[in-house]
Amino acid sequence: MKELKYLNKYFLKYKGRLLLGVFITIIATVFKLVVPMKVGDSVTAVKQYLNGEITDIAIVKHELLINILLLLGAALLSAFFTFIMRQTFIVVSRYVEYDLKNEIFQHYEKLSLGFYKQNRTGDLMNRISEDVSKVRMYVGPALMYGITTVTLFIVVISYMFYKAPILTLYAIAPLPILSIAIYKLSVLINQRTTIVQQYLSRLTTFTQESFSGIAVIKAYGIEPRTNTNFEELADGSKVKNIDLAKVQALFFPLMMLLIGVSNILVIYIGGTRYINGQIAEFGTIVEFLIYVNMLTWPVAVVGWITSMIQQAEASQKRINEFLETEPSIQNLVEESTPVDGNIEFNNLSFTYPDTGITALKNVSFTVKPGETLAIIGNTGSGKSTILELIGRLYDVKEEMLKIDNTAIRDLHLEDLRDSIGYVPQDAFLFSDSLRNNIRFGKENASDEEVIEAAKNAAVHKNIIGFKNGYDTVLGERGITLSGGQKQRVSIARAIIKDPQILLFDDCLSAVDTETEEEILQNLHKISKKKTTIIVSHRISSAKNANKIIVLNEGKIIQQGTHNELVNSEGYYKELYAKQLLEKEK
Ligand SMILES: Nc1ncnc2c1ncn2[C@@H]1O[C@H](COP(=O)(O)OP(=O)(O)OP(=O)(O)O)[C@@H](O)[C@H]1O
Asked: Which residues are the signal sequence here (predicted)?
């Protein structure tokens, strides 16, 4: 229960509703008690008439009528209060589920990129959906049935002892066995359910990947292999589901068996004691039979509740693990720190904490507002890492990276990120309209602004060519757009933000050279007072930059302007010659 203590704050938040729930549960239970009482009284009255203890049939009829009315009233009231009881506990559990999901999601969003690299997306999703659902079972049904059971036990068993103590002992004797058996069965059911869920999630992942990668599957003609793999997984899932069904099938027969034993004991012991005169009223036996049946479900529920709590504890532990994870990148300043965009790398070396790969070694350069820096280099030479550090996705030593002469960690994190327009290498578009995908950079942007940004990113013509224009909804991961179109929508998103620093990570790789030229010219116009960094493999993207640095294995091996670099021996000149040759071919 240690982990579940985390939920106490929610119990406190909804204490009013919960207390009302407890109160209503008690009332509903008391009304439930009236039903067997009145059935017992009715049977006793009939028996007394048959024995000749009551001679006037009118008296018996009158008592039966009163009993029926009371019975009906009590049953209706009990049903009504049971309905209200569900409205309190189950509704609270839904509120808690909602709060907890929001809390987890908001916490996820605060966590640093490293966290997402270390944990699989499926796992993150499972904790926010599956685990929260299991925790809800503790807050809702487990609590509700727990309170109902305790109330019913106290009220019914006390009354039974009051009526016939010895008979009560016999009647309730099999109930603990039932509770333990149901508990054991529930544990088994849970174990098998977990396995079934694991199979299901493997099947879902496989199916999702197959559909996402359908183009590759078709191109390689591996549909038969994919079908076989699916069949194997589905077969495994089927076997585990059958295993689960077998133990589930035991649940009700086991319950019936033990109720049967209790009933036999009540009839036998009750009958014997009535004959011996140890029980005064015949109706007591009938009354007890109803009580035993009334108690059976709550007793079975004890086992179920126990396993529900165990599962919730395990789930809450997994949730707490993430909730207790602190974001490795934290905002350290209170006051607002507007950013001008003077970027300074000072002998910066950086090693990725998770892999230990040293991506940058003694890198130094400066870029000022109004300037464009181009970074050229082989794959894996550390170009993207430079951009990630400017966005403070990772921390470095204070003196190594400054913006506006202030260590990057001394800038307000929100101000820093607000001042950056970042276009990643792998353009990610949401399954939404093109307009909203561009607006993502500026939520309240007008249609004119969206069009202007799209024009600057040289994608406007493509967009208006679509039947629905800016309202074209993109499929999952923007599959309706070509690679180059996706890159340009992603550029438009950064442009519309109108940030002080623009970071382009090899985002023109999929556009032809003419379009590249058009975009670069537009960028030149709009970034007159901004700091721009363009990462590229192409000389054409870099040539007009104020400064170019060439990276190799994390080190700057050349720097200068295009003219300076083409006139000195080295990587840049060779690349230029190679790309010029390719263009002429
Ligand atoms: N998130 C990460 N965690 C650990 N190592 C990383 C991470 N990102 C990059 N690296 C490693 O750091 C090195 C530099 O990578 P980086 O992405 O900066 O290169 P790049 O020059 O941008 O390459 P490309 O042109 O292929 O995009 C590589 O060896 C890479 O494997």
From this structure: none
